[in-house]
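Figure 3 (text version): structure tokens given as input.
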């Protein structure tokens, strides 16, 4: 039983480190990895979608494929503070989120 708990904990730690580590394509200067932001906000398996383009930076929603009936918001501040220890900013456009 103890080895099973240890294995589960080790697997959880590996999964958490993958989830919380920045991706190669996103950094504080180049913008926000919205998929990772969705996963940090709502959990593993959630993906990003620009659901309301007319709302600019605030038009992003998260959903779980393939069904996606439920869409939830994304906390970009959580992403920026969790990954970089910085604050989230945008200039209005849908793809303008960055951490500084």
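Below: residues designed for each position.
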């Amino acid at each position: 039983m103890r080895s099973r708990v240890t294995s589960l904990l080790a697997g959880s730690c590996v999964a958490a480190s993958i989830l919380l580590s920045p991706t190669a394509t996103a950094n504080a200067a180049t913008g926000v990895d919205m998929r990772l932001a969705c996963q940090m906000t709502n959990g593993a398996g959630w993906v990003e979608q620009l659901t309301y383009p007319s709302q600019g930076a605030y038009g992003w929603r998260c959903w779980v494929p393939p069904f996606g009936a439920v869409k939830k918001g994304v906390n970009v501040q959580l992403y920026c503070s969790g990954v970089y220890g910085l604050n989230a900013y945008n200039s209005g456009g849908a793809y303008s989120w960055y951490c500084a």
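The first strand starts at residue 47 and ends at 50.
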